Each structure stands twice: as structure tokens, then as C-alpha cells.
């Protein structure tokens, strides 16, 4: 059965060229004569699998909004975006909207055929993210400074912003709180997963991890009994991460507040470690020692970044004081909003669901955008350098 293709372009020459290229492929069939976006959307909804080609050279914002709607709601519709102005900023916006393929105009036939073949393949098999997956660990070896809140809220916002599958892992093996913070009662936990590593595939993962509501965030809870935690080995953590990377685009880890071997293995596997601190001298001295240990473990400065929680502009310990004590620049500041955060925790919901307009909710959203945009940019520089022409 041929895959239906819908072309959305204001340029007649582009549509004609696309028709000609698609007609050379036996696996697809171009659907024509759509009057508006709603008719296109309804057609995509009714198709088992489909390809949507969108030329955003004109009416870019309106078309990106439509792409976002399709990517959020029609998971078997694959989207290819075209533009006669392939800037870095545009491609980042395209990726954030949920489209995974981009080509510049005018089209090069060989590149176009390769992309369509790749899309066809992805429609019939599970796409593997593999080495493209990014692991972000949230760490502090001092308790009570908001590490779990940060991991939980950041993971959810990254799932919303990126439209990718995100895994949130609770590695607080003794007293994890993620399920409490999100009001979840998962049927399985990390100890069960580690006992079944040889059985894991994409379907097993997505049915075993607890999906958070209707988002693309999946939660792996801590083990319920202390003895189970004691049985976990560092090598199992590494193997678990390698398996998760095949299915998820991002893994956010609420790391244990310790330097035990299994936690160090998780930190070693991470692409980015947020060292969480607050603006008081004991916490800053503690963070300073953590950075020294990270240095001994061979972690470079780009991998370990300072995240200042409960930040207040008029605090006695200033931002400059924090950076002078630690000897590092602050990567991100999360504002102090005690009542909003405590209300969210007590209700078992992320802060964006309690009050999306609060300063702290906006801060998590901005951090997620900053992270995903940075990752998109890195991928663009590596994978689309020929497309961008050094832009």
C-alpha cells in the first residue's frame, strides 16, 4: 500500500518539482487539491501512515504552528520541511515544532530521495535515537536544596518543548521522591528493569516505564525496598543507560546524593551534569568539593555546570560571590518561589500545571528551550553543515 503524501507550498514550481520526484517513487502517492489546513489535518488523521511536506518560505509562523499541531497529535505523520532561507534559527524552530527532516530550496534530487527513503523506513520500523540521545543528570551531595524538583520539572518541560521521548530516572536508591512529586503509582521500578535487561526492547520499555499523563515523558521509579537497592551494580546502570538511549532522545537523571560506585557510573555516562547549589556558604563549599571530585574523575568543565537554585536578586550572598567561591560561572539561576514550589510538591504536580505563569515555571520552560536549542544547534553543526553552507 502506498503512503499518502500531502504537499503544502505556495510556490507552483516547487509543487511541480515535488510531484515529479514523488512520481518516481513506487512507495508513495501524492494527494492533491486541499482547500485549507483543517482539510489537510483531517486527511492526515484518517491515514494510517503519511508524509507531510511543508514549504515554510512564506507564512512561516502559521505553517510552523500547523506543523506543531500535527506533530503533537498525529504520531504516524512524518514531516519534511523545506525553505529557501535555511538559517540556523529557522531549522531550530522547525525541529522544536516536531519536524525531524529539513531540506533547503532549491531541491537537490539525490538529497530529496535519500530523505524520503529515510522517512519511509521510519514509518515501518521503530526509529532509534542511539548516540543522539543526551543524558542530563541533576546532582548534589547535599540534601534539601531542590534537586528532585529541578529534575522533575526540567524533564517535563523538555518533553513538552522537544516533542521527543524523555526518560526521567530516579536514582535515589534509598529514598526517591519523583513518584511523590508527580503523584504516580508505577507498576514497575528500576530494580525490575535491571532484572530484565536481556528482555528489554522498545515495546517493553514504553509499557514498563510510567508515562506521565498524555506527554512524551516516561518515569522510571526508584526501588521500593532497601535490599533491592543494595543488589544494584554499576555495570547494570551502564547497560540500562545504553538500552534507554536506543529509545529516548533525552534522559534526565535525579542522581543520588552520593559518590557511591553505581551513582558515579551514572554521572560518567551523562553528557551534562547540573551541580545544584544555593547561595549560602556551606552549600557553596560543598559544591566546591564536588567540583574537585569531578575533576579527579576526569569530567571536563563543559560537562559539569552550576545551577543556582532559590535565587534572589537582593540576597546577602550575591551571584558574583557564588561564582568567586566556586570558581565557576553560573549556568542557570532558578528563582526562589517557596510558596508556589511547596504548593506544587504538596499537590503532587509539576509547577507548570499549578501556575504556568509563575516566574519559576517560566524559568524551567526557558531552561528546557535553552538546552534543546543548544543540542539542536550542536547536531546541526555536525549533521547539516553541507546544508547550511557554513552559516
Description:
The structure is a single chain. The chain has 391 residues and is an alpha/beta fold. It has two domains: 3-125, Response regulator (Rossmann fold, 3-Layer(aba) Sandwich), CATH 3.40.50.2300; 130-370, P-loop containing nucleotide triphosphate hydrolases (Rossmann fold, 3-Layer(aba) Sandwich), CATH 3.40.50. The protein is 48% helix and 18% strand. The protein has helices at 12-23, 37-46, 60-73, 88-96, 109-124, 147-162, 178-181, 190-195, 202-208, 226-230, 234-244, 261-269, 281-296, 319-326, 338-347, 351-354, 359-383, 385-388, and strands spanning 3-8, 28-31, 50-55, 77-83, 101-104, 134-139, 166-170, 210-211, 217-220, 250-254, 272-277, 304-311, 330-335. It has an eight-stranded mixed beta sheet with strand order 8-9-7-10-6-11-12-13, sandwiched between helices. A five-stranded parallel beta sheet has the order 2-1-3-4-5, sandwiched between helices. Helix 4 crosses helix 17, helix 6 (147-162) crosses helix 17 (359-383) and helix 11 packs parallel to helix 12 (261-269). The longest helix is centred in the last third of the chain and has 25 residues, at 359-383. Residues 126-130 have low confidence and may be disordered.
